[in-house]
Amino acid sequence: RSVLKTPLKQAATSHLVLTERHPDCQPLTTPPKPKEILPADPWTPTSNLKMLISAASPEIRSREQRRELSNNTSEVLQAKHCLQEHLSGDEYEKSQPSRKEKSLGLLCHKFLARYPDYPSTAENNYICLDEVAEELSVERRRIYDIVNVLESLHMVSRLAKNRYAWHGRHNLSKTLQALKKVGEENKYTQQIQMIKKREYEHEFDFDGERRNEEMARSFGSNEHSEISFVELPGMEFRAASVNSRKDKSLRVMSQKFVMLFLVSTPQIVSLEVAAKILIGEDQLEDLDKSKFKTKIRRLYDIANVLSSLELIKKVHVTEERGRKPAFKWTGPNVLPNIQDTKLETTSTICPPPISESITSKEQCSKNLFSSRGKQNFTRHPSLIKLVKSIENDRRKIQSAPTSPVKISASTDQNLSAFPSKMAQVPAIAKHQLEEQSKKAKEIKMELSGSALECNLSSPEVVPKPEPPHTAAPSQQAALPQPLGVCPPSHSSVPPVILPHTHSGVSYAIYLHPSQAHTVTTYSPSFMLQPLPYANVTGIKSINSKVLNKITTEEGENQIATDDPTKSLTAKERPTIKSETSSKRCLKRSQALQENNLIKRYRSDEESLDTSLTFFPSGYLIPLTQCTHGNKAGFSDKEKTGICSLQHTTYSSPIGVIPVTAPELKAVNIPAFHITPLNIMLSPTSIAAAPVLSNSCLNSSNTSSVQNPSSSVLNFTLQHVGLIPAGVQVPANPVLQHVAVSSQPEHVSHSSENMNVQEEKVSKNILQL
DNA sequence: CCATCCCGCCATTGG
DNA sequence: CCAATGGCGGGATGG
To answer: What residues does the E2F/DP family winged-helix DNA-binding domain cover (predicted)?
Structure first.
């Protein structure tokens, strides 16, 4: 049967391709066509689709265009070549499909091309796997791969047997927020750190093995509760039937993978690290060759899909040891979900937001205090997790660790979910931006170079050669710097992260019992953790830049030097020069008023004092929480958390407590966050809020998505004059501008407050 | 040689 | 019980 199938398939495929290709190829072969713009632009994988689907909405079309321009060209190029040859040869049996043409990435593009990024609720948005498989002429198995990762992002949800519902990117920002949160709670940052550290330790060889094991045992392995599947409030589990299979690896793996990006500062994750972490958070360090290999294979699958979604892109991390494949997050940066007013209508029990600022603030403080005083564990997710794990532990004690137990406990928190509307905008805009970036590469390069010099370190990615000793001192030194240096921009994200607990995103985590045993290790682990990390951090910051550089395949550059410290630069760098400039213009004009705010904000961030003043020790986390895995938060810690992922030790009233970044964020941020918010938000935001909500009656999601874009447009228009012409405008200038203005980075720079305001303003405008 | 990752066997699921 | 799902890893492929 396979025989039959194959031929058919090929025929179909080649068919399409050929038709398409002819035209494109010509240009390629012939210099004339390819303008400077897209030197390589060959036919894109999507091109076929485009044509076929051309009927689709403009949105889709534009997206396609963008895509075409920007990326994935490289992959396809090859394919093209093959085809070309064949063509010339004859119509014989044109090319054998060539592996590339069958790649999951391409397939995924095709798949995605069939549905709009932001489907309207009215549409049919149903996906029939059979049909899709057939239409795309692929085996079903492949479709599952795609759908699974899409499902992990809640871009689709299973309805029934052959049925899936398409949600597009509506839930994306919420999902990412939730994932980020979970990732933080799981101390992924630390785990990454650990692995890296271990890695370099190996270099010394000595008996790294032994030591590693110890380490692992002491804290690394402590990994506790395994994450199972993160769900969003709105869409828990559709078909009851579907539910059971909730925790399957690809889905979960995909989520975890994404979490790694969201949690790490450079937002670059190497395959190796990802695999290690994803593998066994339990039994690590048993270099199970085959297992590792398999994991990597899966990761490639996932990465392909994520790449198609333009959430990540492949890069290489170069260390002294050589280059390693890695992926860089190119998706929307997850903003800290701020309490947004209009919440999603989504199910959860979210208290109606009265005045956002006030409400959120109160909640935050309430949580903190209450938990402290009362042991209101329930509130804090991590606590819940702990409890769960313990329970599981008991249950499981006897069961063999390996045996997968089906019993999963789920934790559910009811929190309000917010759609950060703005968040979505950036996402949208981002893609657009990406395109531009290519052109600007060169420029970029220059920038990056300079930027590099400015910032020194790129801590994150690679561990430095230096032994721990150095680390200690360096770390301390490092700390201060990051704080000062680290600008709000990039790092702002973290802060934003804010109060998980009350944060809008609600999610449910299903724990895997098998991992329960880990609990035991828990306490010890946290005690130990701080020290090692600190070392790492310090070292890194110093040498990191030298040590690693990241390169894009195209050789774009080393865009990402990872360093938390110079978040600002880092941010800017990636963006294209033109973008930047335009962006700035926009900012200025748009945000004149905001400027003050921004400044303040920044100053706050930079100068601890401010923040400190606001919330001194008051925000310490209660012991209970500490138990969970971390310690108290402090005034400074915010910064720390923001600037450096690593952990540091802080002194608290209680004594010296080791803090992990994630924790800090959770704790501190709220406070931090809150203060500014109140001040800034109240006026405008509140007033505006009602209006907005009304407009969005139908579906918050939909509205949120669309509104922003349109608002952005308006904005753009207004500022068109301001925007520098440097940027090339392919098809529609407007869009581009929009992209620029709405850029995530931009958003991130500004304080949340600002964002909110902006949004509102824009919305108002839109509303007429 | 090695990084990727296609392919499809075959165990699970769920209906 | 059978079809739908989806682990998993051999081995092909392109650089």
So the answer is: 99-168, 245-331
Quick check: A161 CB within 7 A of strand C?
Answer: yes
Q: Is the CB of A290 under 7 A from strand B?
A: no
Say if CB A634 and CB A659 are below 8 A apart. Answer: yes
Lowest mean pLDDT segment, chosen from A104-118, A252-266, A425-439: A425-439
Contact A61, A54 (CB under 8 A): yes
DSSP tally for chain A: helices H, then strands E: 33, 12
Residue A348 domain flag: no
Domain-embedded: residue A392: no
Inter-axis angle of helices A421-454 and A172-185, nearest 10: 60
Which residues from 238-267 of A have any strand C atom under 7 Å from their CB? Answer: 245, 248-251
Residue A59, classed as helix, strand or coil, is helix
Q: Which residues of chain A (107-146) touch nucleic strand C at CB < 7 A?
A: 129-130, 140-141, 144
Q: Which helix (H) or strand (E) holds A323?
A: strand A322-329
Name residues whose C-beta falls within 8 Å of residue A440's C-beta, 6 or more positions apart in sequence: A576, A577, A578, A579, A727
Q: Which nucleotide is nearest to A75 (CA to C1')?
A: C14
Count of CB atoms situated within 10 Å of the CB of A112: 25
Domain extent, residue A296, equals: 104-200+246-329
Number of structural domains (chain A) is 1
- The pLDDT, as a whole number, for residue A234 is 61
Identify whether the C-beta of residue A671 lies closer than 8 Å to the C-beta of residue A684.
no
Residue A657, number of CB atoms within 10 A of its CB: 23
Are A501 and A381 in contact, with CB atoms under 8 Å apart? Answer: yes
Q: Which nucleotides of B are covered by protein (CB under 7 A)?
A: 3-9, 13-15
C-alpha distances out from residue A516 to A127, A389, A508, A526, A586, Å: 37, 5, 18, 16, 51
Instruction: Report the distance from CA of residue A100 to the C1' of nucleotide B7 in Å, as an integer.
Output: 14
Nucleotide nearest to A9 (CA to C1'): B7
Specify the DSSP element, H or E, that contains A11: helix A2-29
Strand B closer than 7 A to residue A8 Cβ: no
Helix axes A577-606, A661-695, angle to 10 degrees: 110
H or E element in which residue A719 lies: helix A700-719
Handedness of CA A137, A141, A146, A151 (dihedral sign): positive
pTM (two decimals): 0.48
Rg (CA), chain A: 25
Per-residue model confidence as pLDDT tens digits over A245-280? 666 689 999 999 999 999 888 888 888 888 888 886
At A136-148, the pLDDT tens digits run 889 999 999 999 9
- For residue A509, the cross-strand partners are A411
By C-alpha distance, which of A683, A697, A734, A685 is closest to A713?
A: A734
Please tell me which residue lies nearest to nucleotide C8, judged from CA to C1': A294
- How many Å from the CA of A101 to C1' of B12? 31
Q: Does residue A562 sit within a domain?
A: no
**Would you call A492 helix, strand, or coil by DSSP?**
helix
Identify whether A256 is part of a domain: yes
SS3 A329: strand
